Amino acid sequence: MRITAPVPGARVEVDDLFDEALYTHGDPHLAWQTLRAEQPVFWSKPGFWVATRHADVRRVLSEHETFTSERGTVLLMLGVDDAAGGKMLTVTDPPRHGQIRLPMGKTLSPQMAVTQTPAMRALVQEIVSPAWDRGEWDVAAAFARLPVAAVLILMDLPLEDVDPLLHWTYASIAPNDPYFAHGSKVDTLRRAHFEIMDYFAGKIRQRRRQPGDDFISHLLAATVDGKPMPDDQIIFNCYNLLVGAVITTPQAVTALMIALAERGRAIPPDINVATAVEEALRWSSPSVQFLRYATRDVAVGDTLIRAGEPISACIASANRDETVFERPFDLNLNRTPNRHLAFGIGTHRCAGHALGRVMLRMAFEEFLLKLDSFELAGPPVHLVSNGAAAIVSAPFRIHAHTHVLAP
């Protein structure tokens, strides 16, 4: 997704927030600025509501009794009920949601994220090591591999599987992207889902024979409604973890670097890394929006949403809400407080948020803070998607601090 800084008060006519071209080649931030000021809950083509203000987005994401996730959460599948509803964490509401989240949390908890720090640091160091030997390096392509590798470490699976899994994950979230498409949208989705789920099905069979202390083993030992979790639910939740990881971490790094390069800035060495990570998440808003369906007639602001109607909670707009963030279109790595919604909120807050923050901290410490300067070596290539603010290519000329290059 393109990140722009529209002039305060500027407006544009808005009619279609589903069109993927808006996010890839247009100016979605100008559209959202217009709607926050004029029509904060907006009926968009081809037929769904969009909440654009921070308070309304928080409410839609938090009130699972009124705005269910079980029919689907991805705008790409608007109007098609998700087959994983009630089985996959992101498309399951409480109380069942808690039963699925509990075993996942054993691997993704803040405590486990700390335990994984040495492995994550080594992984980041390996990912960025080629940057020090080259004048030009594709940051987006390199960092896209990081979360997939991290997921495979959590699952105790071979790292040589990173590249095919990354390809099929992008295909599953952006079936209209020309680089990842395999025929029509339907054909691409069918092929991507088969490749990913067949992969995990095989690994689950292996883990049943040789259980361990990993993500898949924890799901195999879990119970839902007093029964062992079926294989299809385990597969869905492995897929869920993979997609969530791919969307978040690499986009925060790449979008931050693009913004700094456009402003001719590097990151000060004395920056508070934890604070800077939160601003990188707000700025990039990797998950653009999540879909929900109203379970009853309900007013959101001054707008009546009828039972059964879809409503998109636009995180990327909420994270630029002028009533919540001072100078929201300024990149401020010292921003506090920072009430961004990049990981969602409430019951459905991203289960891997702690691990995501660990990986981003490592990216700062092992890469971003070691850069003396950098500039774009070519135009970024944005993923064709209305739900993921992914950047698939962003070549940079890298200039590291002298001590980094010393033998």
Architecture overview:
This protein is α+β, with helices and mostly antiparallel strands and about 400 residues long. It has one domain (about 20-405): Cytochrome P450 (Cytochrome p450, Orthogonal Bundle). About 45% of the residues lie in helices and about 15% in strands. It has 15 helices and 14 strands. It has helices spanning about 20-25, 30-40, 55-60, 95-110, 110-115, 115-130, 140-155, 160-175, 185-210, 215-220, 230-260, 275-285, 315-320, 355-365, 400-405; strands at about 40-45, 50, 65-70, 135-140, 225, 225-230, 290-295, 300, 305, 310-315, 370-375, 380, 390-395, 395-400. The strands form five sheets. The protein has a five-stranded mixed β-sheet with strand order 1-2-10-7-3. α6 packs antiparallel against α7, α7 packs across α8 (about 160-175) and α11 crosses α12.
- Relative helix content: 40-55%
Low-confidence stretches: none
Number of strands: 14
Return the CATH architecture: Orthogonal Bundle
**Cα gyration radius (Å):** 21 Å
Count of individual helical segments: 15
Head-to-tail CA distance between termini: 39 Å
